[in-house]
Amino acid sequence: MGLSTHVLDTMHGTPATGMAVELHRMQGADGSTPVLVKRFTLNADGRNPGGPLYDTASLKKGTYRLVFDVAAYFRARGVQLPDPPFLDRVALDFGVADTAQHYHVPLLASPWSYSTYRGS
User: Fold this and answer.
1) In terms of Cα–Cα distance, which of 76, 81, 105, 80 is closest to 93?
2) 71 neighbors 81 (Cβ within 8 angstroms)
3) In which domain, by residue range, is 10 found?
4) How many domains does the chain contain in total?
5) CB-count burial class (<10 Å; 0-12, 13-18, 19+) for 9
6) C-alpha to C-alpha distance for 10 and 27, rounded to whole angstroms
7) CATH code at 104?
8) pLDDT tens track for 64-75
C-alpha cells in the first residue's frame, strides 16, 4: 500500500481541505538533508488528491519528512492567529523500515496543538 497521509482539522471538526503539504526524503551521510519529493494540496477528504504518496513498489527504506502548512490553512479559514503563530509549519520526521507494510501518517491539527500516530 505504500505511504499515505490524512489531515483532520480538530478546531472545526472537518478534513483540512486546502492545506498545503510537502513530502521530503531525508538524505546525506547523516540523513539530515531534506530533498523535496512533492508538494500537494489536500482534497475535500483531507488527503492527497493523487492517492498514495508512494505506492509499495516505489517506497524505499529510510527517513521521510511531511511538512504541513498549518498556520496558512487556519488563516485561510478566517481564524485570527497571533503573529507569529503558535504553530506555523508542522514537520513530522518518520522512518520506513519495512517497505512491504503500509505507512499511514495522519495529522490531527488545531492552531494550538497537533498529534500524529502510525495509522492503518
Assistant:
1) 105
2) yes
3) 3-116
4) 1
5) buried
6) 33
7) 2.60.40.180
8) 999 999 999 999
